[in-house]
Amino acid sequence: MRILLWTWGLLLMAMAVIFFYSTSIVGDELVTEAEIRTRHQIEAIEWLIRDHPLFESEKDFAEWLDALAFKLNSRITYIVDGRVVADSEVPFADLGTLDDHSHRPEVVAALKDGWGVNSRHSDTLEKEMLYVARQFPGVPAVDEGVLRMAVPFSHVSARLNLLRSNLIWIFLSTFGAAVLLSMFMSRNMGREIRAFSELARSIGEGDYSKRLRVLPGGEFKPLAHAVNAMAQSIERNIELIKDQKGQLQAVFGGMREGVLTLDSNGRIESFNTALDDMFNIPETAVGRSPIEVIRRYEIQDLVDRVLADPSEQARSIQIDIMDTRTVEVSAERFLDQNGVRKIILVFYDITEMKRSEKSLKDFVANASHQLRTPLTSIKGYTETLLDMPPADPADGRRFLETVLKNADHMDKVISSMLALAKSEQAGKRLRLGPLSGREHLSRAIDDLAVWAGERSVTFRTRTPEDEMYVMGETDGLLHVFHNLLNNAVKYSPHGGVITVSAEDDGESIVFCVEDQGPGISREHSTKVFERFYRVDENTIDGSGSAGLGLAICRRIVKNFGGEIWHDGYGEDVRGARFCFRLNKPAEKTP
Predict the structure, then answer these.
(1) Which residues, at least 6 apart from 458, have a Cβ–Cβ distance to it below 8 Å?
(2) Rounded CA gap, 245 and 243, in Å?
(3) Roughly how many angstroms between the first and final C-alpha of the chain, as a whole number?
(4) What is the dihedral of CA 305, 310, 316, 318, to 10 degrees?
(5) Which pLDDT does position 90 carry in this prediction?
């Protein structure tokens, strides 16, 4: 609109200048033309006066001049020494009442230069007149004087008004056409500008799919191409950013490590799900300090140290959290897009690593202890046989049997250690399936029936009538049944009874093995599933037990998603009772 207004204003100014300049020139030309024409008429009148017969008197001359003026439709005046001798507009009798004309500009100029011209308002005729005067030498009966002809401006004004009217109409038509053309062009331009505005607004609102329509030969064609290319580039970049953002969010949210980002003042900016699971962070955590949310001064001290000394290398600490887990916290600095230094804290759950380290230490210590005793015994008996062989062959055989028994014990310890390690590794890649608990229990009882018969031990089963399907793996389930039944037979008295029961609680099957042996006290009840643990650590029993059987069972049952426990204490009632629970299949197995 401002462009239109300025254009129209300049156009009006140009038209006004042209109008006034044209009318001024044409007006001057019309006046000059009237003057020239009047000069020619005066020269013709002079010729007529000289060619006319002699006038008898000034009155005769005045009447002839009036007749001529009537024919020419002009005012003719003859002045002698300022006195009007003849005037076509004034009767001869009234000429004496006219003013002295000797001082009229055109008369003065004519007397001086031969010709005189002047334009002014006539009081006599009450109109604008053009006066052209010429010095006349006179004729008989008419003295020397000035012949003056007055031409009214009416025909000049009429022509000038017609010119002005035509110019005004031309200017109005031109201005109207210019307005219509400019409005049409401005509408097209405005439409294109609005298209640019709509595209910019759409980009600002996140819609990058719109494009400008490019008109061939349009003024905005290069700009439209550039804007479309820019929008397409922005769309590609935004899609790439969204894709990367989605990937980062997926990585950030799916990390097992907790992540906490802090601003330059040590205030929380964001955190992931893993950290929320570790510390149960409230929704109002953003904008607060770590100690207000996590309530661990060690973490706040770590953040304060990093903020106080930006040149310090990254630090890490280890803390124990309430659910017996150990977490290692590492602090790293980074720069955001504005160059502001911020902090990111990464929380690594190293509980399993710590447990593995402890288990490894315990494993090595227990294995060393378990192997040292039989190895010492083997070494002692072997040195005795070498240095002081017994004279009685029976004593020598007894020494060798002791060496063999300790060697068998060491073999069982090593085999059990390998079995336990195998069960721990198998749990990481184990594929469970539905198994018949009744079938596997029957197989285990049949495998131990001969040995139990030698000790006069009998099995008694108490199971539901329905089939008992559980989620597990054949070798592992048989191993658990074999171990529990083997321990029950081993510790049962001669002629004892072993009760094997099973119970369906709806979601799982609970198997129990109960013997009539010496039992296990409350003190040892929770420790019998530990590696190398035995009630009497310094005793190697006749079977060469390594103290790993129940630990292997616990690992296998845990791999199956179940649990195992000791359910009898042997204080008031003799015997031990071990139970384990396994999940039933999600769908009923035919």
Answers:
(1) 452, 496, 497, 498
(2) 5
(3) 85
(4) 20
(5) 87
